[in-house]
Design a protein that fits this description.
438 residues, mainly alpha, rod-shaped
């Protein structure tokens, strides 16, 4: 090999060797940097609690941390909710973790007494209160975003033995009803859990009352919820029954005809005075409540308390608008004419005047009306008693006049009053005679 060629070979070998050395140096440097970077990442993970795990494992670890220290409600809130929403909501872990977060954090959240049903309360709070308000708002917001998953959890926790947990669940539900009552997705999910609320009532009277109020909010949306409220009227706690009655009396009674009969039965209840006031108030607010099949049955039920002096006026107030359809009450009105005092008789006459368009049915009271026209008080009578007797005769004449020929048997008694000195009574008797014996 000549000298120039050998020189070129040596130069080429040297160049390749130098390149190999440089490549080795670059490889070593890059590998060391990656190692250092990896070590730093591990140190950061140790300090921040982050590890390179799947979303399920990460969420499980976060919940375990919160269980060990509920104060993390404030310090790790972002990481906790980020881990929760990293898991698909249809995954069973999402539901169980959401439930655990509410239970674990309940004491911390309720310590600030935040559940005031005010959607803007979280932002209005300052300092730590704002931290807790933010946390609670996130819990409630998950119900809005994932009602099919989170709403059943909240409903279940309404009956939790810990009142703090009840408070958080109540707040989540109440806040969403206030802000999302028109959301079709929320309403659909609420309808799905409404039977659970009715069937699984638990907790204090106050909590149960809230359930009824919550149901009332969406009752106007779907007939099914109104029907599911009816069992509340049979709840063992009178307080709950009254709350349910108020719901039906607030414009939703027509959606559940069976509730009308339940209200009538409770009106007859002898145990609680407040009960029949609440039931009668609710029935009065239900337009034409007597027209359904259950309403017709309710008329007969409401008529029975006519014999009770304490309930008589309220019963007549309910039955008077029914008019001739209240014919089932006529026998009870007749009994009142026979046995009650003049105050009671006036109430019975008011009812008979309302049923008088059904002359044949009301005519069964004619014998008692005749007796009332001829009734004379015994012994000394006060001015008030005399006035009541006069009123009874005037009202009896009105009923007889309305009955027309069906009351012709009363003609002799009416003629007697047509000859009295009292001008008003005499004039009324003459007009009645013209109607019953033309």
């Amino acid at each position: 090999m000549n000298r120039p060629v050998r020189r070129r070979v040596l130069l080429s070998a040297s160049a390749f060797g130098l390149l190999a050395v440089l490549g080795l140096v670059v490889w070593l440097v890059a590998g060391g940097w990656q190692k250092v970077k990896s070590q730093q990442g591990e140190e950061v993970a140790e300090n921040t609690g982050q590890t390179d795990t799947g979303p399920e494992e990460e969420l499980t670890r976060r919940v375990a941390e919160l269980r060990a220290d509920a104060a993390l409600v404030e310090r790790r809130r972002d990481e906790l909710f980020a881990s929760l929403e990293a898991v698909p909501p249809e995954h069973p872990l999402f539901r169980s973790a959401y439930r655990d977060i509410i239970i674990i954090s309940a004491s911390e959240l309720n310590r600030m007494a935040m559940f005031t049903a005010n959607p803007g309360f979280a932002g209005a709070m300052g300092g730590k209160d704002s931290e807790r308000g933010w946390f609670f708002s996130r819990l409630a917001d998950l119900v809005r975003k994932y009602p099919r998953v989170c709403l059943p959890v909240v409903v279940e926790l309404l009956g939790h033995p810990d009142p703090n947990v009840q408070g958080v669940a109540t707040g989540c539900l109440e806040l969403n009803i206030i802000s999302s009552s028109s959301s079709a997705k929320f309403i659909e999910s609420f309808l799905a859990v409404a039977p659970l609320i009715v069937a699984g009532v638990a907790g204090s009277d106050e909590a149960v009352a809230r359930y009824v109020q919550f149901l009332a909010v969406v009752t106007g949306q779907k007939r099914e919820v109104a029907a599911s409220l009816t069992p509340m009227l049979r709840h063992p706690r009178p307080h709950v029954q009254v709350m349910a009655a108020e719901v039906f009396g607030s414009g939703y009674g027509q959606l559940a005809p069976k509730a009308v009969l339940e209200l009538a039965v409770l009106f007859r209840d002898e145990r609680h005075q407040a009960m029949y006031f609440a039931m009668s108030r609710s029935l009065k607010r239900i337009p034409r409540w007597w027209e359904s099949t259950e309403g017709k049955q309710a008329v007969a039920v409401i008529a029975q308390p006519l014999s009770d002096p304490d309930k008589r006026r309220t019963a007549v107030d309910l039955l008077e608008p029914v008019g001739p359809e209240a014919r089932a009450a006529i026998p009870y009105a007749v009994q009142v004419l026979q046995k009650a005092d003049n105050e009671g008789r006036l109430e019975a006459l008011r009812l008979l005047l309302a049923t008088s368009p059904d002359a044949k049915a009301t005519a069964r009271a004619v014998p008692q009306l005749i007796e009332l026209l001829r009734r004379q008080g015994d012994g000394f009578r006060t001015d008030n008693q005399v006035a009541r007797e006069y009123q009874c005769r005037m009202e009896a004449l009105k009923v007889l006049k309305a009955l027309g020929p069906e009351a012709k048997a009363a003609a002799p008694a009416v003629k007697e009053l047509a000859e009295v000195k009292n001008t008003n009574l005499r004039t009324a008797a003459v007009d009645t005679l013209k109607a019953i014996a033309p």
